[in-house]
Amino acid sequence: MNSPASSASAAAASSAAASQAASLHLVCTACGAKNRVPRERLTESPDCGRCGTALMAAQPMDVTAEIFDRVVAGTELPIVVDCWAAWCGPCRSMAPQFEKAAQSMPMVRFVKLDTDAAPQQSARYAIRSIPTLLLFVGGREVARQSGAMPAQAILDWVRRSLPA
Ligand SMILES: [Zn+2]
Hints:
Layout: H1 8-11, E1 23-27, E2 34-38, E3 61-62, H2 65-74, E4 79-84, H3 89-104, E5 109-114, H4 119-124, E6 132-137, E7 140-146, H5 151-161
Parallel strand pairs: 3-5, 4-5
Antiparallel strand pairs: 1-2, 4-6, 6-7
């Protein structure tokens, strides 16, 4: 869908132009290492250079509180975060829908944050009910949605919320 930036000046532009850059930074959800991936390789199942974990997994990836901030700040693709907890029934019922949405949107990273294990992030992002979905672009929260949703509603919400 996107073609690599053709001019050298584009590569030198601000991070706002990151979506057009020839390569992207992706932070590994398993070990927190920052990987640089050429845009044309994104669809070729790139693995983390440090630990070998898939960087563009079709399944939602669990991310720990320890590396969550690094993943959000250092990943140059939109990230949808499912803030959930094991005791939460609606969270469990939404999980397969979240997985389905993740498979339908390969250029958006879908991650899961266990709020019980992430009290700092829960407080910082004022997560008052779960499940809550957070959408991050360029390290900034651009949208949130609380309550369980079917896959199609998740996809519609993400598409609607992404900057043009
Ligand atoms: Zn890794």
